[in-house]
Amino acid sequence: MKKKKRIYYIHSPSNSLNNGGVETLHQLAHHLKINDFKAYISFYPQININTIPKKLLKYNVDYQNYSDLENSIHIIPEVDTARIKLIKKGKCIIYWLSVDSYFQKNSDKPFWKNWNYYRKTLNKRIFLFRLKKFQHLVNSHYAKYFLENRNIKSTILKGYISNYYTDEFNILFKKNIVLYNPQKDRVHIKKIKKLLPDYEFKGLSNMLESEIKENYIKSKIFLDLGTHPGRERMPREASMMGCILILANRGSVQNKFDVPINDLYKINLHKKDYYEKVVNLIKNISNKYEHHLKNFDHYRKLVSYTNEHKIFDEIVKQYFSNIDRVIK
């Protein structure tokens, strides 16, 4: 008897539609669809499709509530591994879009807040030793190393930035503006601002995508001293639009694969003089912008839509074409 064609249900949280992880899930659904796989995004909790942002709708994916069928494969993000319990007939794959959120809310927050987060979300996750029997996809080398250290194998499938960020900017229009993401860093940025009162700092929040891009185009620096639980989208977008990155050397920034930039731009927050180093670096970049920009030529090619979109598609085709050999 002919085997039924696989149906893929990609479980996506609906409470964070502007999150980079949800976009990566849409990218996966898109590439499965264009390569003739039957795939659906399945939101939880269920939402009105009319509330989905345009940046997700452009992937032209199909939406459907999941069904637990014998020929179904369910791709479940690491933040909600307990959804595995809902699947009795189908198979499951865990997609690690980040790492830190599996254990804690934010390492910059007090212990009690992270403990409360872990305690309250305990029912959303399966303990790691119980996940060894499943297949795992990872969005970063940081996640791959995390799993390897626990004897869990994985396949790298890194999401890409939108082709909206095209490496088209004019250095003559660049200003001494320091961009940052207020959702990522509410601690260190306050100190930096006080040390540089003559500089313009702009937080990228509550903005349309066009407004964010316009700020990338006219600014010289993107500063992110927050945590890096995965391959963060904003630094890659900002770099494509000619911003020099200054990042905390933590999480995915620590390895040379996820963020392969010069160590000069990776700030060790454990050193006493790191604020001074950041301040001096901002001043130096402002005065010698073109010199620093050349240091990011290779990185911009690596994280470009053209490069990473192609790699993503190739991995999707190879991995899912052989899924029956891979998945148990």
Fold topology:
Layout: E1 7-13, H1 20-34, E2 38-44, H2 54-57, E3 72-77, E4 91-96, H3 111-120, E5 135-138, H4 141-148, E6 155-156, E7 175-180, H5 188-195, E8 200-203, H6 209-218, E9 219-224, H7 233-240, E10 244-248, E11 266-267, H8 274-287, H9 289-294, H10 297-303, H11 305-321, H12 323-326
Parallel strand pairs: 1-2, 1-3, 3-4, 4-5, 5-6, 7-8, 7-9, 9-10, 10-11
Number of domains: 2
| Percentage of residues assigned to helices | 25-40%
Low-confidence stretches: none
Report the end-to-end length measured between terminal Cα atoms: 20 Å
Largest sheet: 6 strands, parallel
Write the H/E string, N to C. EHEHEEHEHEEHEHEHEEHHHHH
Global mean pLDDT: 92
Strand content: 15-25%
What structural category characterises the helix and strand content?
Answer: alpha/beta
CATH classification class of the largest domain: Alpha Beta
The strand order across the widest sheet is: 2-1-3-4-5-6
Radius of gyration: 21 Å
**CATH-level-2 architecture of the largest domain:** 3-Layer(aba) Sandwich
